[in-house]
Predict the structure.
Amino acid sequence: MREAGVREMGAETPLPRLEVAELRHVRLPMVVPFETSMGRLNERDAFLIRLRADGLEGWGEAAAWRDPSFSYETVETCFYAAERYLLPLLFSAAQPAARGIDSLLTPVRGYPMAKAALETAAADLAARAQGISLSRWLGGSSAEVIVGISLGIEASHEALLGRIEQAVAKNYRRAKIKIRPGWDLAVVEAIRRRWPDLPISVDANSAYTLADRELFKALDAHGLVTIEQPLRHDDLVDHADLQSGLVTPVCLDESLASLADLEAAIRLKSCRMVNLKPGRVGGLRQSLAVHDLCHDQGLALFCGGMLETGIGRAANLAIASLKHFRIASDLSESARYFARDLVDPPFRLTERGTLAVPAGPGIGVTIDEGELERRTVTCHSFTRSELAGAQA
Ligand code: MG
């Protein structure tokens, strides 16, 4: 049944009969460490799901990191939720449709990133079975997505300006600067002296409070694209207070953990821009609903990134191919993060500052199985009989 405000995606055909689910923890070294107000990331741990059916496979990647910094979900909690609860629900269903996976998983509260990974794997499988791209399956229309680069905290202003110089030379369409107390206004002033018109946004990852109002008024004078998640990770009320005194749009990321949060943020006027991360809001179908609501309410949105491998990046690009994504998304090319990605070929930036939306069946990427094995920390496979039996 259709929920109010949530449109359907894909065809109504059931998923091919699922045979095996594989859960995998991988660890990829970062080309350069990524530092934010939440800490420093030297390697990216990721959780992957592979579903096998009818000689086909479907892939999903969770947005979760190794530690509960951005979100309470981690690679370990994804393993736990998927093995113990989510896969048994999916494998016990008589004839699940890929477009109804989020509804099937509602008996389990929370774990949006684990659910999104499983829903994406099912959608990838369904789209491959139909021979169409995930983008088309979702109703996407863009062949390429304009992208920006997200830049972490560096040892010095000069080091950051050097990174921006490289990004500008590569034609990235926006630079997003991570800020925290002590690395904020002076950094933006230094950037503006060098690039008066470059589209710049700042992302605080919840490092400030309303006591820092004067700082945000000072940032407001610099023509930023947006000030992202300045206040507490689960707040909407203080953000509304801050937004009311600023010309610059406040963008919410962490605070929007669901479609219902976005509805509340709209009523409270907590933001004028939305960073959509499918994992954070519980998957593809919920993302479609967020996209549609932003469109209806005139809120600008872009697709966020969690430093995903090429598997998660491919699914994010499929979402970002929907028509209301008009500002640069935080989806850089593979080489910005990893010396070697898990997909071959890796994602490469075009000279227009865009990434091509994969056009092949499903998420449209080929897994580099050798690199996947080299980067695997643990891998567990479960058969249909093991998973369906676990539900009893
Ligand atoms: Mg953010």
Notes: The pocket of magnesium ion is lined by residues 203, 205, 228-229, 253, 275, 304 (CB under 6 Å).
